[in-house]
Amino acid sequence: MSETWHSRIRRAEQLARETPETSELLRFYAVLLRSQNEIYEYLRTRKDWLPCGELASDLPVLQRALPSFLKVVKASGPDALASEARGLLQARESELREMLIGYWRAPSDLQFFAKAFLQPYARWLAEIGATPVDRGLARGENRCPFCQGNPQVSVLRVKEAGSESGGRDLICSTCLTSWPFRRVVCANCLEENPANIGYFNSPHYEHVRVETCNSCKHYIKSIDLTRYGLAIPFVDEVATAPLDLWAREQGFSKIEMNLVGV
Ligand SMILES: [Zn+2]
Ligand SMILES: [Zn+2]
Q1: I need a labelling partner for 230 at 20 to 30 A (CA). Which of 2, 94, 102, 143 fits?
Q2: How confident is the model at residue 166 (pLDDT cuts 50, 70, 90)?
Q3: pLDDT tens digit string along 173-232?
Q4: Distance (Å, rounded) from C-alpha 165 to C-alpha 180?
Q5: What's the CA-to-centroid distance between 7 and ligand 2, angstroms?
């Protein structure tokens, strides 16, 4: 199944009901996804306007969607985020602008608001093919070919004839584009020695595994759609937070934290 905002929302709501251990995280994530979908629809349905891919030029239109996003987080987010949202609702427009452009040029998964708010914008850029022109980030096979974002999650799909990736894709943490990636390679440091790459899963989540690298001590989670085709990678990644806890206890750092901070 291909991912859309609607399929992500549905999956998050379903998993919030079915997985008690992460239902609180997923309920918040579902609210967040709804708000991201509103930003996406606001951009997509603008008459006579398309983003140009230079954030500074696109911001006057995009930034109008920010207050309602902040209000959603203020109302439904965990305490720390809710109070940060309150602060941002009182911030000057120029400060918010700096925050968003700062993240765009030097992204960090610790910047929840900029990351969450810019995902629908970046996704819409990818869908219309308006290449970001002002990010200036390093390129690499482990970086999104469209926007150079970090991978958020790895996906295993049924291998297509002639495909070189062995059926493995990475999905971008910024624009949610997926791209083929070699199968037994670290998505952070590109380590290729199979002896340094580890795979761990729990019988509790049969279609999700943790892929670790002993060279750089990083990990990414991988969603195996050949085992469970109804999974929605971005959401199943969030729903399996206990695996992150385990990976951290083993001394691994995540390549890119997700929007619920795990
Ligand atoms: Zn991207
Ligand atoms: Zn590595």
Answers
A1: 143
A2: low
A3: 999 999 999 999 999 999 999 999 999 999 999 999 999 999 999 999 999 999 999 999
A4: 5
A5: 31
- How far does the centroid of ligand 1 lie from the alpha carbon of residue 20, in Å? 32
- Residue ranges of alpha helices (H) inside 106-250 are 112-128, 233-239, 241-249
Measured distance CA(63)–CA(14) in Å, rounded: 31
Centre of ligand 1 to C-alpha 122, Å, is 7
For tokens 């970090």, the residue is: 150
Question: What's the one-letter identity of residue 114?
Answer: A
Q: Cα of 143 to ligand 1 centre, how many Å? A: 8
**Contact status, residue 212 vs residue 229, Cβ threshold 8 Å:** no
Tell me how far apart the alpha carbons of residues 262 and 249 are, in angstroms, rounded to a whole number: 13
User: Alpha helices of 164-232 — where are they, by DSSP H?
Assistant: none
Residue-wise pLDDT tens digits, 121-146:
999 999 999 999 999 899 999 999 99
Q: 215 alpha carbon to ligand 2 midpoint, in Å?
A: 5
> Assign residue 162 a region: left if phi > 0, alpha if psi is -120 to 50, beta otherwise?
left
Check whether 55 has a pLDDT greater than 70.
yes
